Amino acid sequence: MQLKVEPDGTLHAVYQEEIDLSSLGPLEIRRGSHVEPNANSLWEADLSPVSGPVLGPFPHRADAIQAEQAWLETFWLPAFLQV
What we know:
12% of the residues are buried. This protein has one helix spanning 61-79; strands spanning 3-5, 11-13, 34-37, 43-46, 54-58. It contains one helix and five strands. By secondary structure, the chain is an alpha+beta fold. The radius of gyration is 14 Å and the shape is elongated. The strands form two sheets. It has a three-stranded antiparallel beta sheet with strand order 3-4-5. The two termini are 23 Å apart. The protein has one domain. 23% of the residues lie in helices and 23% in strands.
């Protein structure tokens, strides 16, 4: 799990249950994407909630979730560190 810390102490992360994030302070959880099947029963990760692309299609839901997490960790989390 990647945690990005801003100078004011605000943390950003892709939510996972590896650690209890509430132990670090109050939480504000927002959806980063929607992983859903398309009309052809293939899976897509729609990252529009964070101004990202639609990834896929993938044959398995797990593949879409893996791509979603990789995109968020590569493109969304680092954006919080730009000054």
